[in-house]
Write the structure tokens for this entry.
Amino acid sequence: MIIDAYNNVWQAAGTSDYLTAESYTPDDMLRSMDKAGVDMAVGCSLGQMVDNSFIAETVKRHPDRVIGFGQVNPRHADAVDAIDHLSQELGLKGLKLHPTMHGYHFADHGLLDPIFEAADRNGLVVLVNALDDPFCAPLSIEEIAKNFPNTSVLIAHMGTIWNVNEAILVAQRNPHIYLETSGAQLLDVKLAYRGVGAGQIVMGTDWPGSDFDLERAKIARAIPDEADRALVEGGNLARLLGLAG
């Protein structure tokens, strides 16, 4: 199965010229998936428009195609309760964190340890939006994640651009930390493949920021070995989410 690790769907709201006023629907995403031969894909809310209920409704409508990841802002007083709710009541399988959008530094044990404890308790995969940004440098992610070895962590965008080497280093030192490919350059993926091997890389598209066929083409160029590519394009994520077999 081809399973993509990171994408966004939402209902239009507000007046912003950047994304939120225009809806990118699950049906739109499914058409892009079909064009690229992608079987399943993670669906998340945007950082600026968290709507876990909509993600859960999307999964309910497309249970064989969409894997729901919820999202919380750790600064909110009800964040831990919200994690329990999105897992136990809404049935979502992962937790997206967006430090840049929500304004917190990741190496904050007081803020993030309770979030990771809740993720660990609920068996959630944690996806951290980690473009090149001091709020979420890979070493900061490691500072929190190293204390929760049973919780799989995906470094989204693998720290592109300047933090790629740091992200690879963190993955090398922590077998439960994975590098997600969306937004990364072809060279970045080649460096990650050389540095950690196929077993700690997961393909993500960040749709609608990119299209699934473009991401698959990038992965094919970076990882020519068919068996290794199968891990990156779905095998690793299937194992983390308990979908294997």
Q: What stands out?
A: The longest strand covers residues 66-71.
